[in-house]
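Example record

Each entry pairs one chain with its bound ligand, beta-D-mannopyranose.
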Amino acid sequence: MLLHVRLSGWACWCLFSGVFSVFSLQQRLTVNLNGKWRLSNSNGSLLLPAQVPGCVHSALQQQGYITDPYFRFNDVSYRWIALDNWTYTTTFTLSAELSVKQKVLLVFDGVDTVGSVSLNGIAVGKTNNMFCRHDFSVKDLLKDGENVLQVGLLSPILYASEQRKAHTSYVVPPECPPGVQKGECHVNFIRKEQSSFSWDWGPSFPTMGLWKGVRLEAFDILQLVQVSSVPLYNDAFSQWRVQIELLIDAVQTARGQLTLSIPELDSEQTFQTHFNPGKTKSNFTILINTVLEMTPVSLLCYPPQVYFRTVELIQEPVVGSPGLSFYFRINGKPIFLKGSNWIPVHSFQDQVTPDVLKNLLQSAVDANMNALRVWGGGVYEQDLFYEICDELGIMVWQDFMFACAMYPTETDFIQTVREEVVQQVQRLKSHPSIIIWSGNNENEAALATDWFDIPASQRPKYIRDYVMLYVDNIKKLVQEEDQSRPFLVSSPTNGAESEQEGWVAENPYDPHYGDVHFYSYILDCWDWRTFPRTRFASEYGFQSWPSFSTLQPVSIKEDWSYGSNFTSHRQHHEDGNQQMILQTALHFHLPNATDPLKRFTDTLYITQVMQAQCVKTQTEFYRRSRSEIIEGKGHTMGALYWQLNDIWQAPSWSSIEFGGKWKMLHYFAQSFFAAVFPVAFEEDDTLVIYAISDLSRDLKLRVNVFSWTELDPVCTLNSSMLLVPGGSAVAVFKQPVASLLAGCGNCTRLTCLLTFQLEDDSSQQGPTNYHFLCSPKDAQGLRRPNITVTASSWLIACAFNPPQATFPLFISTTLFSSSDVVVVQELFLYPA
Ligand code: BMA
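Structure tokens for the complex follow.
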């Protein structure tokens, strides 16, 4: 619903239109300084045009000084770029209108990162945090005619190293990333995208640049810098109120009347108010007259609106289980979060286009996801990301940008973090898609399980620093700024129990509390007993390679083998390539084609099959653990696998390749996250099938037993109709495998497999699922399929806009063919 902000007494009014937008109350003038600037390196040997917003790497590539930074080993070859200092310069001419304004601000929406700004040769200010917006008052420095604006940027690598050197009292680990990442050291000393110094799925490209917009804003009296709104629901009075925050920049003390109204709800309030000179934040509350239903109206509309929805994180005792529950209640209803983790979409943020964002987020929705976690080692995403999430109904778990490290707590550092947190919360809190703020990624776990070999005697000091940063500063600030959603200090964490234990629990991975991150590459992923029956699985996953069509443009022929330098160079996770092969070999024949290229492409492909099957098994385990407590554990209410997207063309845990192509996992996710879905597993040789449903339905189960040789079932079993309540997982079938097979032709574990589906009276509900009774490598009767694939432009188009896919037939006829693997790379893209 639209929010109107009317200021009278200043004779002006405006319509609120989105966060971080800046409005004039009296003919504010804006001079856009984006566009073509000049860029030079420290010794002046390079001088080139550079686009703003942008970064040094992108400018060098656009001007032909470097080739594609993602090509082969270029991440290492282009290390020199971030070891140099760079200067951006532009010139502009003042208009007569602008020069008579009372106040002129030079605004940078984002500087990456350590910058000195000067105007006409005079220092204006400094920057050291890429997550902050900066404005500098520059009226007195402007002159008639040409003005010269310069931003000098220090090498982020050298800056981080200097900061580290200056920090002599104790080590703030880790000092450097593992060698396999080929990255830079001390990223925790600079407030910048933490993964830009390398990660276990990403290259080291420590960017520098003016990564967001630059402009002049000139006004008289005052300007409204930002408006944000959060709705709060009062249970006791069954009433909504909307808290509205105005950030005002006033030239001088100004008094007047402020009217806030939401006409659609017939709610309006007027306040007599005044604003002091400088920037001030003022909060106002409007009570909503209309009685609003607590039904989901909120997640489906765009800003500039006020949205109404409630979110609670429920941590309370669970019958039959020690510990506390951990689930989200949205508009009064418990919701199982189904989704994934979001990492930066590109090393060079200026290359993230609206289409790329839309495509990824639509892909998440198309795979039946309802949630994404914006992971804390990347960036706070751009406004458009959250606008699309609001519109598509994607719930966002928003981390603050701290990951897998300890951080300094000197005053300067804390000060810049405080500014970052306040700005980001103010920018983002109007978005209903954000359902939780979370302080950091894995830093509680890093301390608790001693990732960094901190001597026992020094541990209290690190815990004190941890509490100071995330609790005394970040948590406190966030809760002052936003009372409409929960705050969690870390992920994984035991939540309320971690708090009881002084914010660092003895075991933050305890399945009886909070959320869990769980990875095991060695254990057999087909065995559900290896997974923790946690309350909430916020990270888990397996690596795979992207398809050949994604790798080909960044490699050459000599790279195309699994043992090549390129293949090991792109792998940033220790032993990752080997782990994928070992996990695959548990159930599949490894590719053995004599043609090396075919063997390579078959290998890339089979890693995707392995990954899809592993994440499917684990996710199914979490979904079916929703309604029960077994051995004191269960009531799982979230499954967010690691990770949705890729930053470059390399092996990773992602389900979508760089460029947008779906891996096999993403097609699988479309099924395993479906609203209605049957899941099978074996326990002591008994086959058990659960019906999982987000909707209340009377459902029956149909099980088809197929032999590996034929497309018609050998036999079919039907269960009777049963009510499956919405938001539950219910056992609907139980039979020893031996008796099931005995009643079905000549089936054995090696010759047959099962497919099964849920149905109501008239039709199938949800996708068909399958269960193997042996590893495909042991299956008997598989025949080589006779499939011809014709590549066409239609297929290529589909790579970027994947259609629905069908699976079981495809699997039984092609994937698991026993002798060698049929290359069906592009077959993923066949429509249903
Ligand atoms: C988790 C994440 C990331 C990492 C992933 C895979 O720990 O938080 O830091 O990329 O695992 O190792």
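The pocket of beta-D-mannopyranose is lined by residues 199-201, 377, 403-404, 441-442, 517, 539, 642, 653 (CB under 6 Å).
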